[in-house]
Amino acid sequence: MNVAIMENFRAWMEVVGTAVDGAGVLIVVLGAAYSTLRFAWSLLSKVDEAYRAYRQALGRAILLGLEFLVAGDIIRTVVVSPTLLNVIALAIIVLIRTFLSVALELELEGRWPWSHTSAGSARPASDRAETSKAC
Q: Would you say residue 121 has pLDDT above 60?
């Protein structure tokens, strides 16, 4: 009976992993479509700003989609078929997707993902000095 329960659980986790993968692909596709429509609309008014906003919106959609795709891979590899070969393949996929995520974050935000610059420290030193003198 325990074998049947485990097989049923694995089958459900396969479905869940595939659904999470599907959500990731859907996020990328819908994000790309939305970003493109926004880009086309903004070309009518703000041409200078349109390309930067398009790249940022598209990059964010790709980043979110990648997170879902990694989650789906983890679910399927760890729960459904945890063989050494599958774990190695997962590690390689996660490394590649992590590199892509870091590169996209750097491209979009202009900073490393782990360097959180607060609004106060992002201001020039002269502005911070004037604010502290006024207080």
A: no
